[in-house]
Amino acid sequence: MKTFCGRANPTTGAMEWLEEDEDYDYHQEIARSRYADMLHDKDRNMKYYQGIRAAVSRVKERGEKAIVLDIGTGTGLLSMMAASAGADFCYAIEVFKPMANAAVKIVEKNGFRDKIKVINKHSTEVTVGPDGDMQCRANILVTELFDTELIGEGALPTYEHAHKYLVQEGCEAVPHRATVYVQLVESKRMWSWNKLFPVHVEAEDGEKIIVSPSEMENCPGVPSVCDIQLNQMPSGDFTVLSDVVTMFSVDFSKPVRSASTYYRVQLEPVKSGKAQIVLSWWDIDMDPSGMINCTMAPYWVKSTSAFQWRDHWMQCVYFLPNEEPVLQGEKVYLTACRDEYSMWYKLQKA
Predict the structure, then answer these.
(1) In terms of residue numbers, what domain contains 109?
(2) How many angstroms separate the CA atoms of 183 and 281, rounded?
(3) Please, what is the angle between helix 77-84 and helix 42-61, to 10°?
(4) Distance between CA 346 and CA 332 in Å, rounded?
(5) Could you report the per-residue pLDDT of 296-325, keeping only the tens digit for each?
(6) pTM of this structure
């Protein structure tokens, strides 16, 4: 059996998934993983537990058994939350064999051996039926398949397959929905991460300026996300050009489509300037009412002293293909394009 391992492509900067054989040294993957960061994310864990308890209660109130499917279980934490919340049975799927082996031991040591079955497979290989990996379809879908970009770890195709083959129609989902937000800004600092500015050098005959060729200046390159801690970005390093707007939402309790698509919103700049950067982040509602919310919003959007430090989820910087001058009050259209694993943006005049 082969296992998927994440790799950053040095040419494009994008995360790619490679298959490794059984004899591959997985210890380096564990060393690079962020399990510890996720496990110590108190805000994330508390919100997931609240959402799972609420979902189990809703299923029980309908007089049904609570059968949970946990995709990407990792250490088994979310499955154990479900079992302790009263779920009748949990199927915990983990494709990474060393982690699946660890999950089996953790589940047993916590006394949930009879309530949780760890399945060491990719979710698309899981079978359902009397002789299958799962005896029946689940009515509660629990996942943590998200990265800073939300979809970079293959969340959309995984959800799409799960709704077709692994869960009941109208199932409960934790999280229930995700919403992606964007904001248009001008920032010389961030723009310099994507462009070559003129370089001043001292020569024997005076100062010289090295300018990049026009072919390089006009080539936007391959679109890719730059994920950073925006909460560490001083407010003086960027100028806000638009309000925060909702780019799109995904309801995980309903069938999900992973096919490439685009979303478009209209923006009315609050200030004139050079549109260079799209800042983006997301939040997840753990329940249908939106009362249990886990957000990645930066400090200038949700000002609070209780920020949860995270390295496994941060915020996104997207570079527009070219800087576009915008005028205050003159409407523009921002388009987000996505495939199964990544997103990119473009700006057009209305």
Answers:
(1) 34-144
(2) 9
(3) 40
(4) 11
(5) 999 999 766 567 788 889 999 999 999 999
(6) 0.87
